[in-house]
Amino acid sequence: MFKVKYFSFLVAIVATSCSVSSNLPNESQVEVSSVKINTSLNYLASDELLGRDSGHEGNVKAATYLAKELKEYGIQPYYESYEDKLTAVENTWNVVGVIPGSDSKLKNEIVVLGAHYDHIGIQKPIAGDSIANGANDNASGVSVLLELARNLSQKDLKRTVVVCFFTAEELGLLGSEHLAKRLKNENANVVLMLNFEMLGVPMKREYTTFITGYDQSNLAEKINALAGEPLAGRFEDAEKMKLFMRSDNYPFYQAYKIPSQTFSSSDFENFIYYHHVKDEAHLMDVPFMTELTKKFVPVVEKLINLPSGEIRLKN
Predict the structure, then answer these.
(1) CA 122 – CA 60 distance, rounded (Å)
(2) What angle (nearest 5°) sits at the alpha carbon of residue 175, between those of residues 45 and 247?
(3) I need a surface site. Which of 8, 28, 130, 151 has the fewest CB within 10 A?
(4) Does residue 220 contact residue 211 with C-beta atoms inside 8 Å?
(5) Residue 119 domain-assigned?
(6) Pair type for strands 209-211 and 122-126
(7) Residue 148 near residue 112, CB atoms below 8 Å
(8) Average per-residue pLDDT in the chain?
(9) Helix 140-152 and helix 34-44: axis angle, to 10°?
(10) Is residue 134 part of a domain?
């Protein structure tokens, strides 16, 4: 990203429940599975995938897994297959699915939901470990988006939703740049892009996530109004660190000049293993990820169904 032991936890969640349900009134029921999030997280961040480096075997295994999950959820490929192959990097591809919109007019507008699944592969060994597993960066965001997409596929969505798992983010946003340009050239009417990045651990702040490019649109204030709580806030160092331009939201902003922003819960204070071989699955807070996904589902559903023009750039 941004250019409790596992066994004990699993026993606990299976012993209690495999899902978290929303009791909020007048909303579609939310069924968020902590087991699914945990399973995806631990597979994507496993040693078997060797750090998911773009163009390598572990990256291909991750892409195959994501396509299988989308198919299982009934989310169809956006193109003839789930594979959106890159030309800049051999043997790697974005995984792209679609949830068709139901409204006769709004279905022609597209909301893109994205997260990158690649990571940095094999690194210099530290205490005998050379695999940069990339649990927080970005198996966490992928696992949250997978579960979000599974829930959204069961909703009545007015707009069409394109679910994208990007490759080659770590090589310079190559996967998202490829797809944004392809969609633009195909005259796809993308109106909003939400990106999910490093969501494995909570921050000690008054808001749950921060969004990059906070002042560029009214997205944060709309999200917080829909959530009834501070779900999206401003990270004071985001501009200095140029985070808006360092994740997969940015190519969509460049291509479409639309609200295109990244959600993250990693402020570089709460997790020190950025691009490090110790970015491991057992350090992730799966209950937090589950609760966060539970909050995202009704909010993103409402965003998708808002009247045209309610989410807009400020400049």
Answers:
(1) 15
(2) 75
(3) 8
(4) yes
(5) yes
(6) unpaired
(7) no
(8) 92
(9) 140
(10) yes
**Residue ranges making up the domain that contains 211:** 6-18+34-305
- Within a 13 Å sphere around the CA of 115, how many CA atoms are in the beta-carbon half? 25
Domain membership of residue 314 (yes or no) is no
Q: Please tell me the distance from the alpha carbon of residue 197 to that of residue 289, in angstroms, as a whole number.
A: 12
pLDDT at 30: 64
The closest alpha carbon to 152, from 315, 311, 299, 313, belongs to 299
Q: Where are the alpha helices (DSSP H) in 45-131?
A: 57-72
Per the DSSP assignment, residues forming a β-bridge with 193 are 112, 260
- Taken in order 251, 148, 212, 62, the sign of the CA dihedral is negative
DSSP state of 216: G
Q: What per-residue confidence (pLDDT) applies to 4?
A: 37
Report pLDDT digits (tens) over 301-310.
999 999 999 9
CATH number of the domain within which 45 lies: 3.40.630.10
Asked if residue 75 lies in contact with residue 63, where contact means CB atoms within 8 angstroms, the answer is no
* Total domains in the fold of the chain: 1
Read off the tokens for 234.
């401003």
Q: How does pLDDT run across 183-241, given as a tens digit for each residue? A: 999 999 999 999 999 999 999 999 999 999 999 999 999 999 999 999 999 999 999 99
Q: Whose CA is closest to 252, among 210, 315, 313?
A: 313
Residue 1: inside a domain, yes or no?
A: no
Give the list of residues 6+ apart from residue 17 with CB closer than 8 angstroms, or none: 34
pLDDT value, residue 1: 55
Q: How far is CA 83 from CA 91, 96, 167, 215, in A?
A: 11, 7, 11, 34
